[in-house]
Amino acid sequence: MELSIKLAPEILFHIGNFPVTNAFFWSLFISLFLIIFFVFISSRLKTVPGAVQSVVELLFEGGYSFVRSIITSEKKAKRIFPLVFTMFIFIFACNMATYIPGQSAVSFNGEEGSVALFRAVMADYGMVLVLTLTTCIITQIVAIIVCGPFGYLGRFFNFKGPMKFFLGIMDLIGELAKIISLSFRLFGNIFAGEVLGSVMLFLFPFFTPLPFMFLGLLTAVVQAFVFSMLTLIFINMASELEGSEVVEAEKN
User: E strands within the chain?
Assistant: First the structure.
C-alpha cells in the first residue's frame, strides 16, 4: 500500500483542449448543489418557517448583521454582502465536502489511469487563485470608482518627491502581495490539512487520526471565514481610505 500525495489535481478527461480535473469537477458539483438548494428554499418560503428555512434565515441575518457591523453604511453593506457571503458559503461548502465518508473510494479511469473522482477543491491552487483574483480585481475597481482613474494611478506613481514616489511603489507592491498572501493562506492551510490527515491515516489507521481530522475541520471553517472577512476588509478599505487620500491630496 502506497501513500500518494500530489500537489496538482488529477485530470479526469478533456473537453477540447480544456482539462477537467477532479477538483474542478467537484467544484461544479458543489456549485450546482448550492444553486439547487437555495432556489428550492427561496421557492418555498413560508410565513411560519420550518426548521431548514429557520436555519437559512438565521445564517443570512447573522451574516448581514456582521457585515453591517464592519461597514457603517447600509447602502455599501447591501452591495458588498452578496459577494462576501457567497464566497463564505462556497468555500465553507467545499471544505465541508471533503469530510463526506467514502468519497476517496470513488475512482475514475481517466487519462492518468485510475484517479480519485473527488478532491478537496481548495487544495487546488488554481481555484483559490481565481477567488483571490476576483477579490483583488473588485477591490481595485472600487478604488478606481472612488478615486477616479488619475487619483488611483497617483497613489502608486507620485512624483512630488522621492519619498512619496518610494511609498507609492511600496503601495503597489503591497497590492500585488495581497494576491500571494490571500491565496496561499487558504490554499496552504487546506492542502496541509489534507496531507496531514492522509499521512496520519496511513501510519495510524484507527483512532490516532481523529484529533487531526477535528483540527482540519476547525481549520476548514476558520479559513472560509478568514477569506471572506479579508475580502470584506479590502473592499471596505478601498471604498473609504482611498477616498480620504484623494481629498487630502487635493488639499495639498
Answer: 11-15, 18-21, 107-110, 113-116
Which pTM does this prediction carry?
Answer: 0.82
Would you write out the chain's pLDDT as a tens digit for each of its 252 residues?
A: 455 566 677 888 888 888 888 888 889 999 999 999 999 988 888 888 788 888 888 999 999 999 988 887 888 888 899 999 999 999 999 988 888 777 666 777 766 677 777 788 888 888 899 999 999 999 889 888 888 888 888 888 888 888 888 888 898 898 888 899 889 888 888 887 777 766 666 666 666 667 767 777 888 889 999 999 999 998 888 887 544 444 444 444
**Residue 60 grid cell:** 443570512
List, in sequence order, every residue forming a beta bridge with 154; answer none if it has no partner.
Answer: none
Q: Which of 77, 79, 54, 59 is nearest to 67 (CA)?
A: 77
SS3 content of the chain, % helix, strand, coil (to 5): 75, 5, 20
Nearest alpha-carbon partner for 232 in 56, 58, 38, 68: 68
Q: Which of 93, 35, 85, 80 is nearest to 63 (CA)?
A: 85
